[in-house]
Amino acid sequence: MTPDPVQSYFKPTPPVTVTATPDDRLRAFHERLPGYAPTRLVQAPHLAAALGVRGAWVKDEANRLGLPAYKILGASWAVYRELETRFGPFAPWTTLDDLALQLQAHQPLTLVTATDGNHGRAVARTARWLGLGAHILVPEDMVPARIEAIRSEGAQVQVVLGTYDDAVAAAARQADHQHLVISDTAWDGYTRVPGWVVEGYGTIFQEIDRQLAALGARQPDVVAAQMGVGSLAMAVVQHYRASGRETRVVGAEPTRAACVLRSLEAGALTEVPGPHTSIMAGLNCGNTSPLAWPTLQGGLSAAVAIPDEQAEAAMRLLARDGVVSGASGAAGAGGLLALLTGEGAERARQTLGLTPESTVLVISTEGATDPAAYARITGQQADRA
């Protein structure tokens, strides 16, 4: 079977400066979560050599607060802020047990979301921490390992006949005074919670800034960000396109779910109908979040849509640098590989301002969330959180 072609889009005008004012309580909140510690920032010489740059950094999110993905940062913060908005203000608290006691008068409460895997498990973990129920809706093509991981958190899992976007619509219909929808994508009239999800991801970039400063290293010239509905990429743009920063941001997504790239080409939100069958399961989204869209349209320098084979190549390359990364986690690295080593690489380097002295950053957003697939692709076994 012939692989899908790599597709790319380069912004015809310079990316804009983005203004965002994060909640100054964010870092302190995450530091109070059980087992908090900054994740690794890894030097990746094999990736750097493949990309033809001086240095490559990988932010390794294979173990974040005991889960195999970064999503818990956005999910936990969004849950807290939504609970605070509905039932607060809360009395001062030190542990989540303290917070759970303050919620008892409002029980029963259930957190609801749709997911391709990692976000749903993160919402379910947050619910378990706070003594709340969790109802997680998943598309019919989700692999059993990810479903069982969500169930292991004590959540009710509902398989929706259809795509991730169908699961999102079904989850939205669950909302009432006892069912709080914690979605990482927005729709008409629903932007508050997805905004807090994006804000929660900011802890990743605060950690990176401190880690680079401790090493005496400069900021990256280019950052690659995975794009499903666009929430992580929005957080990346908000941080790296803030006033005084010149870093360029590249968004990567699967060729058969390239809703951001298609929207950029059209100049307006554009749906990519399913089925979305990429092994980059967390990125199998047919619609860009309308909350993320203006930030992505203005702040991205380029977008690239890659076939599964490119993600698999990136997984193997990251493994050589000691990073266990699932297909969605490796998509950012795969996107840079496609742009900088394939047809049109010279144009991409010129557009992004990359030279042999440049440095790049990718976020490996997940570990081996499908251990069998990881072993098949890389030839290595990986522990799973």
From TrEMBL:
<dbReference type="Pfam" id="PF00291">
    <property type="entry name" value="PALP"/>
</dbReference>
<protein>
    <submittedName>
        <fullName>Diaminopropionate ammonia-lyase</fullName>
        <ecNumber>4.3.1.15</ecNumber>
    </submittedName>
</protein>
<dbReference type="InterPro" id="IPR001926">
    <property type="entry name" value="TrpB-like_PALP"/>
</dbReference>
<feature type="domain" description="Tryptophan synthase beta chain-like PALP">
    <location>
        <begin position="34"/>
        <end position="339"/>
    </location>
</feature>
<keyword id="KW-0456">Lyase</keyword>
<keyword id="KW-0663">Pyridoxal phosphate</keyword>
<dbReference type="GO" id="GO:0008838">
    <property type="term" value="F:diaminopropionate ammonia-lyase activity"/>
</dbReference>
<dbReference type="InterPro" id="IPR036052">
    <property type="entry name" value="TrpB-like_PALP_sf"/>
</dbReference>
